[in-house]
Amino acid sequence: MDLTWNAQTWRLLPDRALFWQERKTLILSDLHLGKAQEFQTLGIPVPSSIHYEDLTRLEALLKMHTPRRIFILGDFVHSNRFEHPELASAFRDLHGDRQWILALGNHDHRGKEKLQAWGFDQIVTEVREDGLVFCHDEAQSDQPSVNGHVHPVHKFGRGRERLRLPCFVVGERRLLLPSFGAFTGGFEIRPRRRERIFVSNGQGVVEIPHSATD
Ligand SMILES: [Fe+2]
User: Fold this and answer.
1) Which residues have CB under 8 Å from 39's CB, separation 6+?
2) Distance CA 61, CA 57 (A)
3) Lowest-pLDDT choice from 44-53, 110-119, 202-211
Protein backbone atom coordinates (compact mmCIF):
# COMPACT_ATOMS: atom_id res chain seq x y z
CA MET A 1 0.00 0.00 0.00
CA ASP A 2 1.65 3.25 -1.18
CA LEU A 3 0.79 6.57 0.34
CA THR A 4 1.84 10.17 -0.16
CA TRP A 5 2.31 11.89 3.17
CA ASN A 6 4.05 15.24 3.71
CA ALA A 7 5.19 15.24 0.06
CA GLN A 8 7.03 11.93 0.39
CA THR A 9 6.11 8.41 -0.72
CA TRP A 10 5.65 5.71 1.89
CA ARG A 11 4.96 2.05 1.45
CA LEU A 12 3.01 0.49 4.32
CA LEU A 13 4.30 -3.08 4.55
CA PRO A 14 2.27 -6.09 5.74
CA ASP A 15 5.21 -7.03 7.94
CA ARG A 16 4.44 -3.99 10.10
CA ALA A 17 7.17 -1.76 8.76
CA LEU A 18 7.37 1.29 6.54
CA PHE A 19 9.51 1.96 3.49
CA TRP A 20 10.38 5.58 2.66
CA GLN A 21 10.83 5.45 -1.08
CA GLU A 22 12.71 8.69 -1.76
CA ARG A 23 15.31 7.93 0.90
CA LYS A 24 15.41 4.16 0.49
CA THR A 25 14.93 3.86 4.23
CA LEU A 26 13.23 1.00 6.04
CA ILE A 27 11.52 2.12 9.25
CA LEU A 28 10.24 -0.04 12.07
CA SER A 29 9.60 0.21 15.77
CA ASP A 30 9.01 -1.71 18.98
CA LEU A 31 10.73 -5.05 18.56
CA HIS A 32 10.97 -5.55 22.34
CA LEU A 33 13.73 -8.12 21.87
CA GLY A 34 14.36 -10.17 25.00
CA LYS A 35 10.80 -9.89 26.28
CA ALA A 36 10.35 -13.68 26.01
CA GLN A 37 13.42 -14.27 28.18
CA GLU A 38 12.10 -11.79 30.76
CA PHE A 39 8.85 -13.73 30.94
CA GLN A 40 10.75 -17.00 31.25
CA THR A 41 12.44 -15.69 34.42
CA LEU A 42 8.93 -15.27 35.85
CA GLY A 43 8.11 -18.89 34.99
CA ILE A 44 5.98 -18.02 31.96
CA PRO A 45 7.00 -20.34 29.11
CA VAL A 46 7.18 -17.96 26.16
CA PRO A 47 9.53 -19.47 23.55
CA SER A 48 12.67 -17.46 22.71
CA SER A 49 12.16 -18.42 19.06
CA ILE A 50 9.58 -15.65 18.74
CA HIS A 51 12.37 -13.05 18.57
CA TYR A 52 14.38 -15.02 16.02
CA GLU A 53 11.26 -15.20 13.87
CA ASP A 54 11.07 -11.39 14.05
CA LEU A 55 14.69 -11.17 12.88
CA THR A 56 13.93 -13.58 10.03
CA ARG A 57 11.09 -11.30 8.90
CA LEU A 58 13.45 -8.35 9.11
CA GLU A 59 16.03 -10.18 7.02
CA ALA A 60 13.38 -10.88 4.37
CA LEU A 61 12.47 -7.17 4.28
CA LEU A 62 16.13 -6.25 3.77
CA LYS A 63 16.35 -8.63 0.83
CA MET A 64 13.10 -7.46 -0.70
CA HIS A 65 13.54 -3.69 -0.37
CA THR A 66 17.36 -3.29 -0.25
CA PRO A 67 17.27 -0.20 1.98
CA ARG A 68 20.31 2.06 2.32
CA ARG A 69 19.33 2.83 5.89
CA ILE A 70 17.20 1.34 8.63
CA PHE A 71 15.58 3.50 11.30
CA ILE A 72 14.41 1.68 14.40
CA LEU A 73 12.15 4.01 16.33
CA GLY A 74 12.65 2.73 19.82
CA ASP A 75 11.85 -0.09 22.20
CA PHE A 76 14.37 -2.16 20.35
CA VAL A 77 14.90 -4.22 23.49
CA HIS A 78 12.33 -4.88 26.18
CA SER A 79 14.78 -4.12 28.94
CA ASN A 80 18.49 -3.94 29.50
CA ARG A 81 18.45 -5.97 32.70
CA PHE A 82 19.87 -8.95 30.80
CA GLU A 83 22.48 -9.43 28.11
CA HIS A 84 21.29 -11.30 25.04
CA PRO A 85 24.54 -12.29 23.29
CA GLU A 86 22.96 -14.81 20.90
CA LEU A 87 20.18 -12.46 19.84
CA ALA A 88 22.70 -9.63 19.47
CA SER A 89 24.87 -11.84 17.28
CA ALA A 90 21.90 -12.80 15.06
CA PHE A 91 21.00 -9.12 14.76
CA ARG A 92 24.56 -8.06 13.88
CA ASP A 93 24.57 -10.67 11.11
CA LEU A 94 21.90 -8.59 9.35
CA HIS A 95 24.03 -5.44 9.26
CA GLY A 96 25.54 -5.61 5.77
CA ASP A 97 26.52 -2.51 3.86
CA ARG A 98 23.82 -0.20 5.18
CA GLN A 99 23.32 2.26 7.97
CA TRP A 100 21.44 1.26 11.11
CA ILE A 101 20.10 4.06 13.29
CA LEU A 102 18.33 3.50 16.60
CA ALA A 103 16.17 6.31 18.01
CA LEU A 104 15.81 5.39 21.66
CA GLY A 105 12.51 4.38 23.21
CA ASN A 106 11.48 4.40 26.84
CA HIS A 107 12.39 0.71 27.21
CA ASP A 108 15.85 1.26 25.71
CA HIS A 109 16.99 3.95 28.08
CA ARG A 110 17.59 1.67 31.03
CA GLY A 111 21.20 0.67 30.40
CA LYS A 112 21.68 2.43 27.08
CA GLU A 113 25.39 1.54 26.99
CA LYS A 114 24.52 -2.14 26.53
CA LEU A 115 22.87 -1.27 23.21
CA GLN A 116 26.27 -0.45 21.74
CA ALA A 117 26.91 -4.23 21.57
CA TRP A 118 24.17 -4.69 18.97
CA GLY A 119 26.20 -2.95 16.24
CA PHE A 120 24.21 0.21 15.47
CA ASP A 121 25.94 2.91 13.47
CA GLN A 122 24.15 5.60 15.46
CA ILE A 123 22.11 5.66 18.66
CA VAL A 124 20.17 8.90 18.91
CA THR A 125 17.06 10.42 20.44
CA GLU A 126 15.53 11.40 17.12
CA VAL A 127 16.28 11.90 13.44
CA ARG A 128 15.19 15.09 11.66
CA GLU A 129 14.94 15.11 7.87
CA ASP A 130 12.82 16.85 5.24
CA GLY A 131 10.78 18.67 7.88
CA LEU A 132 9.90 15.42 9.65
CA VAL A 133 10.86 13.98 13.02
CA PHE A 134 11.49 10.28 13.44
CA CYS A 135 11.36 9.29 17.10
CA HIS A 136 9.74 6.89 19.53
CA ASP A 137 6.97 8.98 21.07
CA GLU A 138 5.03 11.69 19.30
CA ALA A 139 5.16 13.76 22.50
CA GLN A 140 8.83 14.41 21.61
CA SER A 141 7.85 15.98 18.27
CA ASP A 142 7.29 19.60 17.32
CA GLN A 143 6.88 18.80 13.60
CA PRO A 144 5.02 16.08 11.71
CA SER A 145 6.45 12.87 13.02
CA VAL A 146 6.84 9.16 12.41
CA ASN A 147 6.52 7.28 15.69
CA GLY A 148 6.14 3.97 17.46
CA HIS A 149 5.44 3.52 21.18
CA VAL A 150 1.65 3.01 21.08
CA HIS A 151 1.52 -0.49 19.47
CA PRO A 152 -1.76 0.44 17.74
CA VAL A 153 -4.30 -2.25 16.88
CA HIS A 154 -7.75 -2.00 15.34
CA LYS A 155 -10.56 -4.11 16.74
CA PHE A 156 -13.13 -5.88 14.59
CA GLY A 157 -16.25 -7.51 16.01
CA ARG A 158 -16.84 -8.17 19.70
CA GLY A 159 -16.75 -10.88 22.32
CA ARG A 160 -15.56 -14.25 21.07
CA GLU A 161 -15.75 -12.99 17.50
CA ARG A 162 -13.32 -10.20 18.28
CA LEU A 163 -10.25 -9.80 16.09
CA ARG A 164 -7.45 -7.33 16.71
CA LEU A 165 -5.08 -6.46 13.89
CA PRO A 166 -2.00 -4.26 14.05
CA CYS A 167 -2.49 -0.99 12.23
CA PHE A 168 -0.83 2.13 10.89
CA VAL A 169 -2.40 5.46 11.84
CA VAL A 170 -1.95 8.30 9.38
CA GLY A 171 -2.94 11.86 10.20
CA GLU A 172 -1.69 15.27 9.18
CA ARG A 173 0.75 15.48 12.05
CA ARG A 174 1.67 11.87 12.75
CA LEU A 175 2.32 8.57 11.08
CA LEU A 176 2.13 5.90 13.73
CA LEU A 177 3.69 2.49 13.16
CA PRO A 178 2.39 -0.82 14.46
CA SER A 179 4.87 -2.69 16.63
CA PHE A 180 7.20 -4.84 14.58
CA GLY A 181 7.74 -7.49 17.26
CA ALA A 182 5.29 -10.39 17.44
CA PHE A 183 5.32 -10.47 21.25
CA THR A 184 4.42 -6.89 22.10
CA GLY A 185 0.68 -6.66 22.82
CA GLY A 186 -1.44 -3.91 21.34
CA PHE A 187 -3.47 -0.83 22.21
CA GLU A 188 -6.88 -0.35 20.62
CA ILE A 189 -6.51 2.97 18.93
CA ARG A 190 -9.22 5.58 18.48
CA PRO A 191 -8.36 7.68 15.45
CA ARG A 192 -8.25 11.41 15.91
CA ARG A 193 -10.08 13.75 13.58
CA ARG A 194 -9.22 13.03 9.94
CA GLU A 195 -6.85 10.21 10.78
CA ARG A 196 -6.84 7.12 8.58
CA ILE A 197 -6.34 3.55 9.79
CA PHE A 198 -4.60 0.89 7.73
CA VAL A 199 -4.58 -2.65 9.13
CA SER A 200 -2.15 -5.44 8.33
CA ASN A 201 -3.24 -9.07 8.29
CA GLY A 202 0.31 -10.25 7.62
CA GLN A 203 -0.40 -10.70 3.90
CA GLY A 204 -1.56 -7.26 2.91
CA VAL A 205 -2.45 -3.80 4.17
CA VAL A 206 -5.96 -2.40 3.76
CA GLU A 207 -7.56 0.85 4.79
CA ILE A 208 -10.50 0.70 7.15
CA PRO A 209 -13.29 2.56 5.34
CA HIS A 210 -14.44 5.78 6.95
CA SER A 211 -11.81 5.64 9.65
CA ALA A 212 -11.11 9.29 8.91
CA THR A 213 -13.73 11.47 10.60
CA ASP A 214 -14.27 15.06 9.49
FE1 LIG B 1 7.01 -0.39 22.74
Assistant:
1) 46
2) 6
3) 110-119
| Whole-angstrom distance, CA of residue 63 vs CA of residue 45 | 32
For residue 53, how far is its CA from the centre of ligand 1 (angstroms)?
A: 18
Residue 77 Cα to ligand 1 midpoint, Å, equals 9
Q: In this model, does residue 214 exceed pLDDT 70?
A: no
CA separation (Å) from 167 to 20, 49, 104, 128, 192?
17, 24, 22, 24, 14
> Each residue of 27-44: pLDDT tens digit?
999 999 988 888 888 999
Distance 182 CA to ligand 1 centre (A): 11
| Distance of CA 20 from the midpoint of ligand 1 (Å) | 21
36 by Cβ neighbours in 10 Å (0-12 / 13-18 / 19+) ranks as buried
How many A from CA of 74 to the centre of ligand 1? Answer: 7
All structural domains of the chain, each given as residue ranges with its CATH number in brackets, are 2-207 (3.60.21)
User: Helix crossing, 85-92 with 49-65: angle to 10°?
Assistant: 10
